[in-house]
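Practice problem 4.
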């Protein structure tokens, strides 16, 4: 009895299989009904399906660069389909097109073929250069439209645990369209003499595409430029000076551009003053049409970069960041900054009197963090109120143990020629408040103010 049921089941399966194989139809389309355009990492297929209400779409089946089967689908609402999954440019890639009806039956396959262009990772590897830079190196590359992929950047360094050689990951970044030369700067913390830089690319499916090594990359040395050798100007820089001495407490507040160059990279004078000692600019020092900050190096110099330091939150009597209707240390801290540079124009007019926007500015670097980034991940976490109402430092020793907080914009050494004379710093945006919602909710920067406590300019070491 059991054998009879088993035989019946096998016969039913066979009949179903034969019936299923026969449930195909002729679409009436020929390979000429489809056209293809090679694009980055694949091709675009253009089509026009039959004017039949029973037809709902189509499928395209082919094998990708790794020999894995791929199925791409599209509906009658569209007239094109992107075919992806390729690395190096290919010609005459075979594929089969199937038209689908509402009852899920498929047409007999229509054979087609298409060509592709190099993917983003392949184009990156073909164009990338590794250039010497300040205490590190610069990647310069270009990628075509529709580039996607991941680049992992390593160098051959030292394993801190064993002291032996180690491949150290510096960074990973995603590829985007960069039809003109894109540059990314990297600094290496370890003291390594002319290391080997290793680049590895992947697609977003986790497949490694390629790897390339660059041996003997020389790091350039930089030095901080004395503030006496350059001029600084910001049209909306604030200047305030007042002092109060009472029976119970004393405070001294000093706001002005000179604070940027007093060497206090921690903001430690706030503890001595029991009040603020920092730089503040505004209104409209950031935002859609901000007043920039300008630097005149007085002659052309090879610029290495610029650093901006945070005044660490101190437990002071007078620690009120409130100007022109804006309130809160955290919401005045820059998170989106662009650095521009210009060559010598032979003019000796003071910055305050000169039409600086008439210069031929070149974008040379930038810094960006999301305005709503978690406070711990920000370049300046120790601000009020983000650090907490009672988290202010009470001694200089505590500040020194914590260390400085700064953001840096590195300028590539390549392409500077004899160097730049002028720099322009544009703050595009500041952070939003984080931390205690009760306090953060009161913080706002409607006047587009900015603040930081120290500015350093770095140039090529003589």
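Answer key:
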């Amino acid at each position: 009895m059991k054998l009879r049921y088993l035989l019946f089941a096998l016969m039913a399966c066979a009949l179903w299989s034969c019936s299923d194989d026969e449930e195909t139809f002729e679409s009436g389309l020929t390979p000429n009904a489809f056209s293809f355009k090679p694009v980055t990492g694949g091709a675009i297929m253009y089509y026009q399906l039959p004017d039949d209400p029973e037809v709902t779409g189509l499928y395209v089946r082919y094998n990708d660069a790794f020999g894995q089967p791929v199925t791409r689908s599209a509906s009658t609402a569209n007239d094109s389909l992107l075919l992806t999954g390729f690395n190096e440019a290919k010609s005459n890639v075979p594929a089969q097109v199937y038209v689908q009806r509402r009852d899920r039956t498929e047409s007999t396959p229509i054979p087609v073929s298409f060509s592709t262009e190099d993917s983003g990772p392949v184009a990156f590897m073909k164009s990338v250069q590794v250039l010497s830079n300040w205490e590190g190196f610069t990647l310069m590359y270009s990628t075509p439209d529709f580039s996607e992929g991941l680049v992992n950047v390593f160098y051959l360094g030292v394993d801190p645990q064993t002291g032996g050689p180690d491949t150290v990951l510096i960074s990973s970044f995603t590829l985007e369209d960069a039809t003109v030369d894109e540059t990314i700067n990297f600094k290496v913390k370890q003291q390594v003499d002319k290391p080997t830089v290793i680049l590895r690319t992947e697609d977003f499916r986790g497949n490694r595409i390629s790897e390339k090594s660059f041996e003997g990359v020389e790091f350039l040395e930089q030095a901080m430029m004395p503030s006496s050798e350059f001029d600084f100007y910001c049209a909306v820089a604030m200047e305030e000076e007042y002092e109060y001495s009472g029976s119970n407490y004393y405070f001294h507040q000093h706001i002005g551009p000179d604070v940027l160059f007093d060497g206090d990279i921690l903001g430690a004078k706030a503890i001595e003053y029991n009040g603020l000692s920092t730089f503040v600019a505004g209104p409209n020092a950031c935002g859609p049409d901000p007043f920039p900050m300008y630097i005149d190096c007085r002659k052309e110099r090879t610029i290495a970069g610029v650093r901006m330091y945070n005044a660490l939150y101190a437990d002071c009597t007078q620690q009120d960041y409130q100007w022109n209707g804006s309130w809160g240390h955290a919401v005045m801290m820059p998170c989106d900054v662009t650095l521009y540079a210009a060559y010598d124009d032979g003019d000796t007019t003071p910055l305050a009197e000169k039409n600086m926007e008439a210069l031929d500015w070149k974008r040379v670097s930038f810094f960006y963090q999301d305005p709503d980034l978690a406070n711990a991940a920000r370049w300046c976490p120790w601000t009020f109120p983000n650090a907490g109402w009672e988290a202010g430092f009470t001694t200089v020793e505590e500040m020194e143990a914590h260390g400085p907080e700064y953001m840096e914009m590195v300028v590539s050494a390549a392409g500077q020629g004899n160097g730049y004379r002028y720099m322009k710093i544009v703050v595009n945006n500041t952070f939003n408040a984080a931390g205690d919602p009760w306090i953060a909710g009161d913080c706002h920067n409607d006047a587009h103010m900015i603040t930081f406590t120290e500015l350093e300019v770095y140039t090529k070491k003589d």
